[in-house]
C-alpha cells in the first residue's frame, strides 16, 4: 500500500492545472500582431469564399 500525502497531491494537481492554463495562454496571446492579422484575414477570406459559393433560390 502506498502512502499519499494529500497536500502534495493537491499541490501537484494545481501545478498541472497551472501548466495547462499557461499553455492555453501561450497559444491565445503569444502571437505577433502580424500573425493575428493574417489569421483574421484567412478567416474572413474563407467565410467570403463560402458565401460566394452559396446558391440563392
Q: How would you describe the overall organization of this protein?
A:
The protein has 57 residues and is mainly alpha-helical. It contains 2 helices and no strands. The protein is elongated. The model has no long low-confidence stretch (mean pLDDT 92).
Head-to-tail CA distance between termini: 71 Å
Number of helices: 2
Give the averaged pLDDT, no decimals.
92
Class derived from helix and strand content? mainly alpha
Strand content: under 5%
Low-confidence spans: pLDDT under 50, at least 5 residues? none
Q: Order of helices and strands, N to C? A: HH
Largest sheet: none
Which terms would index this structure?
mainly alpha; 57 residues; elongated; 77% helix
